[in-house]
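Troubleshooting log. The previous structure file for this entry was overwritten by mistake, so regenerating from the original sequence record. Sequence copied from the archived sheet and checked twice against the printout by T.R.
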Amino acid sequence: MLFFIQMAEKLKPDFFDRLQLVTEKYLTYRRRSRRIRKEKQKSKNILMDWIEAFLWAAGMVLLINQYLLQAYVIPSGSMIDTLLIGDRIFVNKIIYGPELLPGVGKLPSPIVPKRNDIIIFENPQYDSRGPAFDIKQRIIFMLTLSLVDINRDEFGRPRAQFLIKRAVGTGGDRFVQDQGNMRIRPAGESRWIDENEFNTFSGMTHNLRRQMDQSYYPALIAAGRAAGFRSLGLSLPSSVQNIAFRAASIDYPDFIAHDKARLEFLRGAFPHDKNYSRLLARYNQGIYVPESRLLPVGDNRDNSLDGRHFGTVRKTKILGRASIVWWPGGLLSQGSEALPRFGFIK
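Regenerated output below.
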């Protein structure tokens, strides 16, 4: 034991000497590095300094927007009262697998979109100007945090490249709409269930807005029949004309009820023409949602261009889920109960 103590006493001075030498070298190196950086900073052009800072910030914004959170502005009232016109939101891009590049491929994700998610996807009816323009537009849009959008039509209005809706239907579901009220027959069910009843049973608490009063449906149906008369070049009976004129005052008519009434009249006029029966089947049998797809519908049911128009959307085409309102819009125009809130979107 005495031997080991004596050896430790002999080593102490050498150890501390080496520690002091290493520390001095490190401090000298750090001081020299700082001095070199300062000298380089002094000799650098101020303009180049600002450009480098901007490019670095721009690169970080692009990476965040492309793979983590994308900035998006609500362009229409299709999601009132959940989201209002002008709301600026962040979309979670990583949850379903981010795109490798704007409009090019997607990374896989163990999480798939499910019923009741508020999803963002490219409008199936969008007419692209080409990948180069789409990438440029999305880069500018992301760099400016959704303040500048160069994707506009000939009248200067933003083109609806992306849509944000609620996923109301999943694989195996079937939906029909009767006078604005949707009914669902989930996979495995033998009966149709009113959507409000289904939502209550499933614990979904979002509000559905109707902007067309039920009392207008007789006029709207009469207007659909009147459209059938006109397409055949026939004069309108006064009984139809006297009711149909009220439909002109409807701001957001139920297009399905109108078209269904028109087709029913035409099928009655030409019962041998199977084309009218085939077109009516879309409304009578409803929309079927395949396993790999979702049915996106706006919470504002009478003012939404959604899956009832263009059909279902592939899950692989879903770009992200709406997550946060970071700047609310429409503060004064929507009524006190509909005021948007900062925070998470449900």
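Residues 2-43 form the longest helix (42 residues). Archived copy saved in two places this time.
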